[in-house]
C-alpha cells in the first residue's frame, strides 16, 4: 500500500544527518503517494543503503552510478524505492542548487518536518508552476528535459516561459544521453495518465526530435483519401483512440473488458501491456515517411510500410535499450497492425480465417487487435462511416477469440507429427509440418475432433494436392 509520506520504517532506518530531498518532499506537500524517495547523505551511500536494507528487510540494493556513488534500495513488494546519493556540496543548500526544478529543490532532515526551501519551491507548488532552479538546470543533464515533461504531465502544472526556453536549448543534447536513461523517463511519459500532452510538450521543446526523430518525420506526410490527417497527426489520434479504448473497452464488445484486464498485466521495463499498445500506436506507421509512393492518377500508397516499420521499430527500441520482450511485442504489433483490415475485405470470415489470424499474431493477438481497432477509429476519410462499424465488428469477433486463446492456450494437437507420418506412410519433414498446420485449422473449425478423423482428413488433403 502506498503512503502520502515517506514510510516510517524507511525514514527510521536512514542515518542521522541525512536529508530527504526532491520529489518525495514535493509529493508529501501535495499529499500525493510517495513511492520514490531521494536521500542525500554526508557519509558513504553504500553503507547507508546496506543499513536500510538490513533494517527494513524484504528489499534489495544495487549501485546506480559508479561515477556518483549512488545506490538504490527497492522494496520487494514495490511499495517504495529509495535512491541514496552523496550530498552534492558542503551544505544542503549547495546540494539543492544543483537540482532541476524549484519544486524538486526542497529538503527536510530525516526525523524533522522543517522544510529547507531556498528557491521558492513551495510558492511554485501553490502556483502550479514548474520553474528551473538556475540557468544550467538542463545543460548539466539534458535528461532533465524529459523529466520536466513527465512531471508537468503528472502534476498538471504549467511550465514557466524561461524554463521552456532553457529546455528547448538543451533538447538536442538528449540524443547523447544513454538509451536506458531516456527510456526511464520516456516510458513514464508514455505510461502516464496523459501521454498525449506529454508528447506535445516534448514536440514543443524539441525533445521529441531528439528521442524519436522518426516520428517527427511523419509530419506533413499526406495520405490517401481514406485518411483525414497527415501521418503525424494520425499517429497521435491512434494513440488517443487507444487511451479511449482503455477507458471504455466495452466499445469492443463483450470481450472488451476481458481484453482490458489482460492488457493491464506487466510487459517489462516498468510498463504494462497497455503501454506497449501505446508504443505500438506511436510506431505502427513509422515507415510511411520512407515508403510513400504516388501512383498515376494521384493515388497514394505506402507499400510494405508494415515490414519496413517492423525493422525501424527494432532499431528504435534497441536504441532505447528496451527489454527483448517489449521490443518483440511492439515489433509484432507493427508488423500485423493491418491484418484485421485486410480481413474485412473477405467477410464473412470463417473459423479457419480466425484461427489463421490467431496463429500469425500470437502472442500479441489481443494487443494488436486493440491497436487495429484504434487505427481504424482514427481513420475518418472517405467512406469511413461504412468502414468503421464493419472493422470494429470484425475486431469484436477476433478479440473474443484472442481472449479465449490466451486464457485457455492453444488446443493440443489431435495427433503428433511422428504418429501422423507413420499412419500415412510418409517420411517426416516439411510435408508433415504443412499437414499439421492444416489439421490445426480443421480442429479449430470443428471439422475434426479425434486422431482417427485427423488421419482421414490428412489423407483427403494429400489426395487433393
- Tally of separate domains: 4
As an assembly, this protein is single chain
**SS summary, helix count:** 24
Q: How many beta-strand segments?
A: 13
Distance between the termini: 62 Å
- Low-pLDDT segments, ≥5 res: none
What general outline do the C-alpha atoms trace? Answer: globular
Widest β-sheet, arrangement of strands: 3-4-5-2-1-6-7
Folded structure, characterized:
This protein is of the alpha+beta class. It folds into 4 domains: 1-118, Beta Polymerase, domain 2, CATH 3.30.460; 128-211, Hydrophobic Seed Protein, CATH 1.10.110.30; 215-408, no CATH class; 417-464, no CATH class. Helix content is 54%, strand content 10%. The protein is built from 24 helices and 13 strands. The chain has helices at 8-12, 23-30, 45-56, 92-97, 121-127, 143-155, 161-170, 179-190, 195-205, 207-211, 213-216, 231-247, 256-263, 273-283, 288-291, 305-319, 324-336, 339-343, 351-361, 365-377, 384-408, 417-424, 430-444, 451-464; strands at residues 19-21, 36-41, 59-65, 70-75, 81-86, 107-109, 115-116, 129-130, 158-159, 266-268, 271-272, 293-294, 300-301. The strands form 4 sheets. A 7-stranded mixed beta sheet has the order 3-4-5-2-1-6-7. A hairpin with a 5-residue loop joins strand 4 (70-75) and strand 5 (81-86). The model has no long low-confidence stretch (mean pLDDT 95). Belongs to the tRNA nucleotidyltransferase/poly(A) polymerase family. Keywords: Magnesium, Metal-binding, Nucleotide-binding, Nucleotidyltransferase, RNA-binding, Transferase, tRNA processing, tRNA-binding. InterPro entries: HD/PDEase_dom, HD_domain, NT_sf, PolA_pol_head_dom, PolyA_RNA-bd, tRNA_CCA-adding_enzyme. Pfam families: HD (PF01966), PolyA_pol (PF01743), PolyA_pol_RNAbd (PF12627). One of its GO terms (biological process) is tRNA processing.
Amino acid at each position: 500500500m502506498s503512503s502520502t509520506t515517506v514510510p516510517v520504517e524507511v525514514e527510521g532506518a536512514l542515518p542521522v544527518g541525512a536529508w530527504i530531498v526532491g520529489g518525495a518532499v514535493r509529493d508529501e506537500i501535495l499529499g500525493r503517494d510517495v513511492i520514490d524517495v531521494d536521500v542525500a547523505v554526508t557519509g558513504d551511500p553504500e553503507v547507508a543503503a546496506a543499513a536500510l536494507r538490513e533494517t527494513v528487510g524484504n528489499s534489495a540494493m544495487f549501485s546506480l552510478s559508479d561515477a556518483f556513488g549512488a545506490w538504490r534500495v527497492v522494496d520487494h513488494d514495490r511499495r517504495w524505492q529509495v535512491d541514496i546519493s552523496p550530498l552534492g556540496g558542503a551544505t544542503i543548500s549547495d546540494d539543492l542548487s544543483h537540482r532541476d526544478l524549484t519544486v524538486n529543490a526542497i529538503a527536510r532532515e530525516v526525523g524533522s518536518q522543517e522544510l529547507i526551501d531556498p528557491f521558492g519551491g513551495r510558492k511554485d507548488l501553490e502556483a502550479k508552476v514548474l520553474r528551473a532552479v538556475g540557468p544550467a538546470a538542463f545543460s548539466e543533464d539534458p535528461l532533465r528535459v524529459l523529466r520536466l515533461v513527465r512531471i508537468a504531465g503528472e502534476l498538471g502544472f504549467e511550465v514557466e516561459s524561461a524554463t521552456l526556453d532553457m529546455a528547448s536549448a538543451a533538447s538536442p543534447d538528449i540524443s547523447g544521453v544513454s538509451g536506458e536513461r531516456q527510456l526511464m523517463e520516456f516510458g513514464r511519459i508514455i505510461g502516464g495518465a496523459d501521454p498525449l500532452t506529454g508528447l506535445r510538450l516534448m514536440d514543443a521543446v524539441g525533445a521529441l526530435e531528439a528521442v524519436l526523430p522518426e516520428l517527427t518525420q511523419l509530419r506533413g506526410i499526406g495520405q490517401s483519401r481514406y485518411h483525414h490527417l497527415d501521418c503525424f497527426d494520425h499517429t497521435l489520434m491512434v494513440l488517443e483512440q487507444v487511451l479511449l479504448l482503455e477507458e471504455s473497452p466495452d466499445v469492443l464488445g463483450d470481450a472488451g473488458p476481458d481484453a482490458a484486464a489482460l492488457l493491464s498485466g506487466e510487459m517489462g521495463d516498468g510498463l504494462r501491456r497497455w503501454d506497449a499498445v501505446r508504443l505500438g500506436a506511436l510506431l505502427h506507421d513509422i515507415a510511411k515517411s520512407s515508403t510513400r509512393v504516388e501512383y498515376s492518377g494521384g493515388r497514394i500508397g505506402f507499400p510494405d510500410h508494415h515490414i519496413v516499420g517492423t525493422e525501424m521499430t527494432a532499431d528504435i527500441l534497441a536504441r532505447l535499450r528496451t527489454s527483448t520482450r517489449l521490443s518483440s511485442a511492439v515489433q509484432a504489433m507493427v508488423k500485423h497492425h493491418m491484418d484485421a483490415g485486410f480481413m474485412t475485405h473477405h467477410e464473412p470470415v470463417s473459423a479457419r480465417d480466425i484461427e489463421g489470424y490467431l496463429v500469425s499474431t500470437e502472442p500479441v493477438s489481443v494487443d494488436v487487435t486493440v491497436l487495429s481497432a484504434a487505427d481504424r477509429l482514427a481513420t475518418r476519410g472517405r467512406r469511413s462511416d461504412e468502414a468503421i462499424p464493419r472493422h470494429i465488428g470484425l475486431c469484436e469477433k477476433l478479440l473474443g477469440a484472442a481472449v479465449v486463446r490466451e486464457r485457455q492456450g492453444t488446443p493440443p494437437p489431435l495427433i503428433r507429427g511422428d504418429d501422423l507420418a507413420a499412419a500415412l506412410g510418409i517420411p517426416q519433414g516439411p510435408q508433415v509440418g504443412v499437414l499439421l498446420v492444416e489439421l490445426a485449422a480443421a480442429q479449430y473449425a470443428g471439422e475434426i475432433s479425434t486422431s482417427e478423423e485427423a488421419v482421414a482428413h490428412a489423407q483427403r488433403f494429400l489426395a487433393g494436392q
